[in-house]
TrEMBL record:
Keyword field contains Metal-binding: yes
PROSITE patterns recorded: MULTICOPPER_OXIDASE1 (PS00079)
CDD domains attached to this UniProt entry: Cupredoxin_like_2
Gene3D superfamilies registered for this protein in UniProt: Cupredoxins - blue copper proteins (2.60.40.420)
GO molecular function term, any single one: copper ion binding
Classification via PANTHER family: AURACYANIN-B (PTHR38439), COPPER-RESISTANT CUPROPROTEIN COPI (PTHR38439:SF3)
Blue (type 1) copper domain span: 43-147
Keywords: Copper, Metal-binding
Protein name (database record): Copper resistance protein
UniProt cross-references to InterPro entries, sorted A to Z: BlueCu_1, Cu-binding_ET, Cu_oxidase_CS, Cupredoxin
Keyword field contains Metal-binding: yes
Length: 147
């Protein structure tokens, strides 16, 4: 489950069929137990970053991500395979005000907190990125290793 903490009401579906199986998992069930992982988003002297930018998770594990935007700009976190996130970044560049209405994404306003609950069903390496134009290029991406 994702909620959008930003006030901008422009929403767009990233084209995922929410009923299709995703290689990187499925929306979690907020009523079931989950391991909590805190991810901070921020700007740095060298660019932008997620802290941590690498996360290890067990296959089949449900995780509640608490996402805090410590920065001065809106940021988002989008889970996907790397190819999907890079492709979607191109679409975001064409539509910079697009926000995601997907269970694998959350946009968080400065000094606010968002949450995502996700179940990682398959082993592999997956991407999380801020797809707001320029943010991924500035270093705002990370890897989820599911074992």
């Amino acid at each position: 489950m994702a909620f959008l903490a930003a006030a901008n009401p422009v929403l767009a579906d990233s084209g995922h069929d929410h009923d299709e199986a995703l290689v990187y998992g499925e929306p979690g069930d907020p009523s079931k137990p989950a391991r909590m992982i805190l991810i901070a988003m921020r700007e740095t002297d060298d660019g932008m970053a997620f802290v941590p930018n690498q996360i290890k998770i067990k296959a089949g594990e449900q995780v509640k991500f608490v996402i805090r935007n410590n920065g001065e700009f809106d940021h988002e976190l989008v889970f996907a395979d790397l190819e999907s996130n890079l492709k979607h970044a191109v679409e975001m560049a064409k539509n910079p005000d697009m926000e995601h209405d997907d269970p694998n994404a959350a946009r968080v306003a400065p000094k606010k907190v968002g949450e995502l609950v996700w179940k990682f069903t398959n082993a592999g390496e997956f991407d999380f990125s801020c797809l707001i134009p320029g943010h991924r290029d500035a270093g705002m991406f990370g890897t989820i290793i599911v074992q």
